[in-house]
Amino acid sequence: MPELPEVETACRGIRPHLVGQRVIRVTVRERRLRWPIPASLVSTLPGQIIRAVDRRAKYILLRADAGTAILHLGMSGSLRVVPCDTPPTKWDHVDIALASGQCLRLRDPRRFGALLWTPHDPAQHKLLQALGPEPFDDGFSDEYLYRVSRHRKVALRDFLLNSKNVAGVGNIYANEALFLAGLRPGRAAGRLKRDDCTRLVDAIRTTLTQAIRAGGTTLRDFQNADGLPGYFQQTLQVYGRAGQPCHRCGTPIRALRLGQRSAFYCPHCQH
DNA sequence: AGAGGTACCTGGCAGC
DNA sequence: TGCTGCCAGGTACCTC
């Protein structure tokens, strides 16, 4: 479910309900996420006022005076803001109750997500410290992309999935951006020409912008903080469309296995 | 240093 | 209807 646009959508959805609110209590029903939810979060967060809700890559940062909660939705996580007395399902692992009577509810069936706490600058946290530039930052430029891709044999799709190169691009949008840039997902990153980089940076930004505007992609069950689905799936060009005609030229879309994960491309439009 | 594989979990779905 | 096998949007960590 959650790639950068979904996380950004979630962030925007919860922000107005959280910022300025005092945390009343933290209820953990299942602490076994990717890493156990630390006791320090449960003991420190109550009483704190949420000062800001930020995103870095696919991490959501709930900033308070004593520290920052670092939240990751993994593959199946979602956030809702609901009245505290709403009965939880078996996947609603955490509630962060607010003075408003609402609570931020984390649901994560696969438990690949994470909820951590740091009393320090979260940018220095082990999980965030090695992240590459955000796709919308000036630092993510064609010059940058050209430089860091030199001599890399890794497939372009996998190069884009690596958060050290660019933060927050997952499998769906990597494939979609490569289609838009006219580049095959299996091509070696080191073979990018200068103008390929220009088109790719542009394509990544365009793809992500459109997806954010549509409220994310709904595959299976993604919902935003208000429980509404995303609509970007309706505009997917290649992802999950193996065998179906390319929207641009009609050639059947091909699926490719790169590592353990599928990639999709149009053999006519992408080179 | 870089490339490739493994592991963490569970739900949904296609096929029989 | 029920079983089996496969697939999944992420990413840290291990080995070669």
Description:
This protein has about 270 residues and is of the alpha+beta class. Helix content is about 25%, strand content about 20%. The chain has two domains: about 5-130, N-terminal domain of MutM-like DNA repair proteins (Alpha-Beta Barrel); about 140-265, Helicase, Ruva Protein, domain 3 (Orthogonal Bundle), CATH 1.10.8.50. The protein is built from seven helices and ten strands. The strands form three sheets. The chain has a four-stranded antiparallel sheet with strand order 1-6-7-5. A four-stranded antiparallel sheet has the order 2-3-4-8, covered by helices on one side. It binds a DNA duplex (16 and 16 nucleotides) through helix 6.
Total strands: 10
Percent helix: 25-40%
Average pLDDT reading:
92
Beta fraction = 15-25%
Uncertain stretches of 5 or more adjacent residues: none
CATH superfamily of the largest domain: MutM-like, N-terminal
Number of helices: 7
Domains, number:
2
Order of helices and strands: HEHEEEEEEEHHHHHEE
Tell me what the CATH architecture of the largest domain is.
Alpha-Beta Barrel
What is the CATH class name of the largest domain?
A: Alpha Beta
Short key terms for the protein model shown above:
26% helix; DNA-binding; 271 residues; single chain; 7 helices; N-terminal domain of MutM-like DNA repair proteins; elongated; Helicase, Ruva Protein, domain 3; four-stranded antiparallel sheet; alpha+beta
